[in-house]
Amino acid sequence: MRWLDFVRPGDWAVAAAGAGLVAVSFPLAFQAGVAEKAVVKRGGEVFAELDLGRDRRIDVPGPLGTTTIAVERRRVRVVADPGPRQYCVRQGWLERPGEIAICAPNQVSVQIKGNREAYDSLSY
């Protein structure tokens, strides 16, 4: 006997309802609203809060040198960093609330903030 012979119409209904609930709730669980600003930190302290509606570049001094951050078209990225591996530069454009680029050797980070708090595995 095949396993499908044991599945009844009510089983299919419960499976479909469960799949529908997961499909509807998954996007809602990770929403943080609209990206409004970028928070730049240096050494764990807030260095600047950048409005994403205004294009600009800022230089952030750190222990290794200067990190350059750019805001363009409601997104932000690390353009240049004196760190050896350039992970934060390779992170690319940050657009959604909760995204972050960390330049650990130079103690600089930039994070997108939205109109609601973003939750991730660390804050959960």
Give the arrangement of secondary structure elements.
Layout lengths: L8 H21 L5 E8 L2 E7 L4 E6 L4 E7 L2 E6 L6 H4 L9 E4 L4 E7 L10
Antiparallel strand pairs: 1-2, 1-7, 3-4, 4-5, 6-7
CATH architecture of the domain at 35-114: Sandwich
Helical run tally: 2
Quick one: CATH superfamily of the domain at 35-114?
N-utilization substance G protein NusG, insert domain
Oligomer: single chain
Rg over C-alpha atoms, rounded to the nearest angstrom? 21 Å
Helix content: 10-25%
Query: What is the CATH C-level name of the domain at 35-114?
Result: Mainly Beta
| Percent of sequence in beta strands | 35-45%
Give the number of DSSP strands: 7
How would a textbook summarize the main sheet? 4 strands, antiparallel
How are the strands ordered across the major sheet?
2-1-7-6
Low-pLDDT runs of 5+ residues are: none
End-to-end separation in angstroms reads 45 Å
What fold name goes in the CATH topology slot of the domain at 35-114?
mini-chromosome maintenance (MCM) complex, domain 2
Organism: Rhodocyclus gracilis
Pfam family, one: NusG_II
InterPro entries: NusG_2_sf
Protein name: NusG domain II-containing protein
